[in-house]
Write a structure and sequence with these properties.
The complex is a heterodimer. By secondary structure, chain A is α/β, with parallel strands linked by helices. Chain A contains nine helices and ten strands. A six-stranded mixed beta sheet of chain A has the order 6-7-8-3-9-10, sandwiched between helices. Chain A has a four-stranded antiparallel beta sheet with strand order 2-1-4-5, with helices on one face. In chain A, a hairpin with a 2-residue loop joins strand 4 and strand 5. In chain A, helix 3 crosses helix 4 and helix 3 packs parallel to helix 5. The longest helix of chain A is centred in the C-terminal third of the chain and has 16 residues. Chain A is globular and about 55 Å long. Chain B is flat. In chain B, helix 7 packs antiparallel against helix 8 and helix 9 runs antiparallel to helix 10. Chain B folds into two domains: 59 residues; 209 residues, MetI-like (MetI-like fold, Orthogonal Bundle). Chain B is mostly helical. Classes of the chains: A alpha/beta, B mainly alpha. Chains A and B meet through helix 2, strand 6, helix 3, helix 5 and helix 6 of A and helix 7 and helix 8 of B. The complex binds adenosine-5'-triphosphate (ATP) and magnesium ion. Magnesium ion (MG) binds next to helix 1 of chain A. Chain B: Belongs to the binding-protein-dependent transport system permease family. HisMQ subfamily. Chain B: It is a multi-pass membrane protein.
Chain lengths: 247, 311
């Protein structure tokens, strides 16, 4: 059974359709990359899955239950989904450790010592052992984003959503964040990433989905999407990306 | 877009653990010896600093002398000196005025606590989204609209004379209590708006991050939004409190023996206004340090961008 099932989802802002009947299935342990031009609706799709936005039509199922049912408890859904934002969105008034342990302690009822031990273990594993007691503004962008990823996985979510987690970063810092994502894949974490890093998408994804103008035009294994895209618009997009990269 | 990620190794980075951040280039880093140029630059800056101090001193002296000469040479000066600057009257009134001033401080401290509570509650109620809270929210809006519009002195009259006139069972009749209630009502509305602006100044992405971690609305407020909001509104809040310290004197109209009232009793019995000067000096002595603290905190807040740190 699929872990996440998005069925015919529509989303409008004002009168503009931002998602037009998007279908998407994500199997357990699968890594899905959403690619597409700026404004194609990648972030919106992720925010809808996390119920940060209310969809206008269609349905989203998580583990077989519909989460877009108005009677569903959004907090219960979000307890099972982690999200990492492009701009990190760490809490500036809390130390790294407090950022990470906030949800385990306050939402999942984990005892303080236990939450702290797990946070330190994660920091250790991702090369941030010395930073537990720092405030976020004392860290580099790459370090902050890694803390944000750790914060999102500290509650062992069923599904992790990553929204262009490297696009605010210096190219030299990108690899360290991608490294942590790769490690998460190795642990079997199910993930959906919106990304502009085509090389990385090709490398890590089990499924690549191309969005344009709110329509999921094409999806498939990375080998197929990147080497022999079926849809001419996918081809055109990849062409543009390639040209931009040469410049 | 950077190229070649497909081939790049993505091992976990682990370099930052190194606590010393010294340069790790090859060889020893060069020692810093101040250059001739830097020494000359610093000498020039020192000279310029000395020059500004002398200019500031000279201009201050000129202004003060002009003021003193202007005032003391004015035709009414001897009379003013007698009625406003009489040392005997000052000494005679000071103990009573000072005793009265302690009451001002008491009013201030009690009112301040309640104002903070009322202001915060009203601001939080205005932020509630659920339709269940509509009546509460409407009440909060009504409260801020009305009590920010009514002059504080008017409110003190209304509460101070209106509440006892109702002759309600258990309603306070003591003028100090009534005065405090009026001040709390008036300032609570201002402080609620200050808190609200602080809450709204926290970027929506902070809320989104908190909600994505499944924190409830209340938890998001308590752990994420309020701590940041409160830090930001400390300077404007202190500013309101400087103004509250002065406004405690308005309670004098209800009759309690606070500083202004004591001063006016002395003034009318001795036909000398010096006691007012004593009261004014006491208020200044209290508000000036508070104003400086406000400036200091505001400057510090401006220096640190987001409020990270331990303040
Ligand atoms: N809160 C909002 N209000 C109105 N319009 C919005 C809002 N959020 C997104 N949009 C619009 O929806 C469209 C899709 O936005 P979205 O952020 O999902 O794109 P994206 O694919 O993530 O783009 P990018 O690669 O630049 O992040 C855009 O045209 C955007 O202007
Ligand atoms: Mg986006």
């Amino acid at each position: 059974m699929s872990l996440l099932k998005v069925e015919g989802v529509w989303k409008h802002y004002h009168r503009q359709s931002v998602l037009r009947g998007v279908d998407l299935e994500v199997a357990p342990h699968e890594v899905v990359c959403l690619i597409g031009a700026s404004g194609s609706g990648k972030s919106t799709l992720l925010r809808c899955v996390n119920l940060l936005e209310t969809i206008d039509d269609g349905a989203i199922h998580l583990d077989g239950t519909e989460i877009t049912d108005p009677r569903a408890d959004p907090d219960d859904v979000r307890r099972r989904i982690g999200m990492v934002f492009q701009a990190y969105n760490l809490f500036p008034h809390m130390t790294v450790l407090d950022n990470i342990t906030l949800a385990p302690r306050r939402v999942h009822g984990v005892r303080a010592e236990e939450a702290e031990a797990r946070a330190r273990e994660l920091l250790d594993r991702f090369g941030l052992a010395g930073k537990a007691d720092e405030y976020p503004d004392r860290l580099s962008g790459g370090q902050q984003q890694r803390v944000a990823v750790i914060r999102a996985v500290a509650t062992t979510p069923r599904l992790l959503l990553l929204d262009e987690v490297t696009s605010a970063l210096d190219p030299t810092l990108v690899t360290e964040v991608l490294g942590i994502i790769r490690e998460l894949k190795d642990t079997g974490m199910t993930m959906i990433l919106a990304t502009h890093e085509m090389g990385f998408a090709r490398d890590i994804a089990d499924q690549v989905c191309f969005l344009e103008g709110g329509v999921l035009l094409e999806s498939g294994p990375p080998g197929q999407i990147f080497s022999e895209p079926r849809h001419p618009r996918t081809r055109a997009f990849l062409q543009r990306v390639l040209e931009a990269r040469r410049m | 877009m950077t190229d070649g990620h497909a081939a790049a190794p993505y091992g976990p980075p682990g370099r930052e653990d190194d606590p010393d951040r010294g340069p790790d280039g090859p060889g020893d880093p060069p020692e810093w010896v101040k250059s001739e140029r830097q020494l000359r630059r610093e000498a020039e800056l020192r000279a310029r600093g000395r020059r500004s101090v002398s200019i500031a001193t000279a201009s201050t002296i000129v202004v003060v002398v002009a003021l003193v000469v202007g005032i003391t040479k004015s035709p009414g000066w001897p009379r003013v000196q007698e009625t406003f600057l009489s040392p005997e009257a000052f000494v005679a009134a000071l103990p009573d005025v000072l005793r009265g001033f302690l009451l001002n401080i008491k009013i201030f401290l009690i009112a301040e606590v309640f104002i903070l509570v009322v202001g915060l509650l009203v601001a939080l109620v205005r932020g509630l989204r659920s339709p269940v809270f509509f009546p509460l929210r409407a009440l909060a809006v009504l409260y801020t609209d009305i009590f920010r519009g009514v002059p504080t002195i008017l409110l003190i009259y209304l509460v101070g004379f209106g509440v006892p006139a109702l002759q309600l069972q258990g309603a306070p009749s003591d003028p100090v209590t009534l005065g405090i209630i009026a001040l709390v009502l008036s300032y609570g509305a201002y402080v609620a708006e200050v808190f609200r602006s602080g809450i709204e100044s926290v970027h929506p992405s902070q809320r989104a991050a908190a909600r994505s971690l499944a924190l409830t609305h209340g938890q998001t407020m308590r752990y994420v939004v309020l701590p940041q909001a409160v830090r930001r509104v400390v300077p404007p809040l202190l500013n309101d409190f400087v103004s509250l310290q002065k406004d405690t004197a308005l309670v004098a109209v209800l009759g309690p023996l606070e500083a202004l009232r004591q001063a006016s009793i002395h003034a009318s019995s001795d036909f000398n206004y010096t006691p007012y000067l004593a009261a004014a000096l006491l208020f200044i002595a209290l508000t000036v340090p508070m104003a400086r603290l406000t400036d200091h905190l505001a400057a510090r807040a401006a220096r640190r961008r987001t409020g990270g740190g331990d303040a």
